[in-house]
Hints:
CATH topology of the largest domain: Aspartate Aminotransferase, domain 2
Family: In the C-terminal section; belongs to the class-I pyridoxal-phosphate-dependent aminotransferase family.
Pfam families: Aminotran_1_2, GntR
Keywords: DNA-binding, Pyridoxal phosphate, Transcription, Transcription regulation
Protein name: Transcriptional regulator PtsJ
Strand order of the largest sheet: 4-11-10-9-8-5-6-7
Domain HTH gntR-type: 8-76
Amino acid sequence: MKLGLIAGETAAEIVESVRALIDHGILAPGDALPPIRSLAEELGINRNTVVAAYRLLSRTGTVETRGRGGTRVATRSSVPLEGYAPDSVLRDVANGNPDPALIPDLSPALATLAGRPVLYGEPTIDPSLEEWALAWMSRDLGPRPDLRLTVTGGAVDALERLFADALSRGDLVGLEDPCFLSALRTVRVGGYRPHPIPVDGDGMTVDGLRAALEAGVRAIVCTPRAHNPTGASLTEERAAALREVLVTHPHVLVIEDDHFSMLSRRPYVSIIGPEHRRWALIRSVSKFLGPDLCLALTASDAETADRLGQRLSPGSTWVSHLLQRLVVALVGDAAVMAGVERAAEHYRARNAAFAEYALAAGLPCRPGDGLSVWLPLPAPARAVTEQLMRRGWLARPGDEFLLADDATTRHLRLTVHDLDDADARQLASDIAAAVHAVLRTA
């Protein structure tokens, strides 16, 4: 960047000057700011004044520091979203959705919800939901005298509010790599910096967690089971090793996103030790009761619950009690819960069946747990997805789940639970053919 554009004698004046240049389009995302020493000499001020100005701009997300790449106007990188691709004529195995046929019918429960209206100032959590949810959470978490419950408008809403209370812009957040798209999007939109923690077949790795803590992360998000996209679940041995690493970092906020909860075929194990000071376990109802029921239950320590409650106060002060009562009616209905159990078994069986077809086609696959399958490939994933489009399939490359924008992987994330045997076999065959075509032209 040419000198002479930025003006000011104090850090605040320099900050306002840079913001004005951005507002007027003189500075664009990605443009470099002058080196600290050069700008200080140009303005005739102390170098520390420029350092303070750049630090303020970084904390507000206006600029980002790229090491040897210098300080540049921040760019907002986009993150792919889950869901169906609009206007596609291809068979969509990329969407990550539950099967609509397996989502409970809400009609009978809706007819029971009439009652007195809820007014301002009343308890934010419906008593019946609180009683059920505390029993559900406590059964898995064990005795925790400080356990408190908060209801939010979904898991992402809980994540966003937890981050907003615990973090400042520019803070490091430890995320699994590959990562759940919504968690990565929430971190980036909030102006925080994601720090990758590798995932293997047993979940978050011990060395990865240790490195993240040494790097100074202030929060960690862990998926204890049915990790999206890999399907990995923590073993008790791995969870114990992770808890041991966290013992010396009791004030780092540890968030567990148990998104698959009732649909999981794996037991819940936790990395939150009994003495950890700041923690939260989030369980959304969207996977087993339907994505349109935007409600999540967050169990946490008392201080985190108080802070989370304060974060709810300025906006939506509570989640609709009608929605809360609907959840209670559904989870208390034996027929609905039997349907949830059938759905869980269906997802497990269809993922396992596809893994067998993939193996028969020469593509070894571990089905894991969750709504999708993480399929290793002997060729670059994006090139394979391009070949699959020619065969009528829309698939999702694993690259989209990696934290680095330019990272690549040799995996596909496939949602296959709505394919019958013939279609699943055909998909596996077409992937093998696509891989062969890519390798032949490489």
